[in-house]
Design goal:
The chain has five helices and eight strands, in the order E-E-E-H-H-H-E-E-E-E-E-H-H. By secondary structure, it is α+β, with helices and mostly antiparallel strands. It has one domain. The protein has a three-stranded antiparallel sheet, with helices on one face. A hairpin with a 2-residue loop joins strand 6 and strand 7. Helix 1 packs antiparallel against helix 2. The longest helix has 17 residues. The chain starts with a strand and ends with a helix.
């Protein structure tokens, strides 16, 4: 029987690991993820979404280091992540910053983009508007973490 790995983001910014599925309907839980150790994309998505939703940066950095989520690995994530049979994301450098966009990217002026010093930060910036809207978290509340 494989061991399950679950993570949940507490409203205080802690990203907590559990072996059993946490109660997602708790008022203290922002989001729950199941980590598939055989699928690196699930680790990337967990870190992207948790960072976008206000997880403590030290914890994200710890997990990213442990799981090998680096700028060098980011092109592999992009290459292996698809939506409707097409690449889900585009990732490139724009000057000194990383730029992440969805697969239907046209250009920086017309397309939704996220920017960051790292690929992970760029993906989190790209994810933030949709995730905060979906979860009911306001950007002001996130900035207080």
């Amino acid at each position: 029987m494989p061991l399950d790995h679950w993570f949940y983001l507490h409203t205080n910014g802690d990203l907590i690991h559990k072996r059993t599925e946490p109660e997602g309907d708790s008022p203290f839980v922002k989001k729950v993820w199941k980590l598939d150790l055989k699928d690196r994309a699930s680790a990337w998505l967990l870190c992207i979404e948790a960072l976008a939703l206000g997880a403590k940066r030290e914890r994200i950095d710890e997990l990213a280091h442990k799981w090998g989520i680096t700028d060098e690995d980011a092109p592999n994530f992009v290459e292996r992540t698809h939506a409707n049979g097409k690449p889900a994301f585009k990732l490139f450098k724009d000057g000194d910053a990383w730029c992440a966009a969805f697969g239907d990217f046209v250009n920086i002026q017309e397309s939704q983009c996220g920017f960051g010093e790292t690929a992970l930060e760029a993906f989190a910036a790209l994810a933030k508007p949709g995730l905060t809207k979906e979860s009911g978290v306001t950007p002001d509340a996130e900035e207080n973490h």
